[in-house]
Amino acid sequence: MSEERREQERFFLNLQAKISYRHTEDNSEVIDTVAANISSGGAYLTTSHPFPLAAKVKIEFNLSVEDLKKLKFILSMESLKKLTGSNLWVSTNAIVIRQQENGVGVIFDTDYQIIPMKPATPDQ
Predict the structure, then answer these.
(1) Within its chain, how far is the Cα of 121 from the centroid?
(2) Lowest mean pLDDT among 7-16, 68-77, 84-93
(3) What's the chain's average pLDDT?
(4) Domain 15-116 falls in which CATH fold?
């Protein structure tokens, strides 16, 4: 019987995500994907794009404030109050630790940015 080794609780949120990967100095690409499951320490992203193990990638997730609270990213209560009712992009660096046919497992760097999304304005 296998034993669960994760320290953080996993959530199956199916978040819209983007993976940026630089192959060389002059060659980089952005891949649209979905985070099939996520915790405050890492994620599993569905993609058929092959990434080498230990590749450094940048990941951006689109999530709600409620999802952000579930993931326990470190934010002050004051910061959370300012974000209420908004959708956000969370941007972080990560390292590929597992490659499978339908996706990659990554662990997050502790340095991340949270960027509120601006609401769409109707045409005038």
Answers:
(1) 26
(2) 68-77
(3) 78
(4) Pnp Oxidase; Chain A (2.30.110)
Residues whose CB falls within 8 Å of the CB of residue 55, separated by 6 or more in sequence, listed in order: 21, 95, 96
Domain ranges (residues) in the chain:
15-116
Please tell me the pTM assigned to this model. Answer: 0.74
The residue count of the chain comes to: 124
Longest dimension (CA), the chain: 61
Q: How far apart are CA 71 and CA 87, in angstroms?
A: 14
* 62-82 pLDDT tens trace: 888 777 777 766 566 676 666
**3-state helix/strand/coil string of 42-65:** EEEEECCCCCCCCCEEEEEEEEEH
91-124 exposure pattern, b = at least 16 Cβ within 10 A, e = fewer: bbebebeeeeeebbbbebeeebebeeeeeeeeee
C-alpha torsion angle, residues 65, 66, 67, 72 (rounded to 10): 90
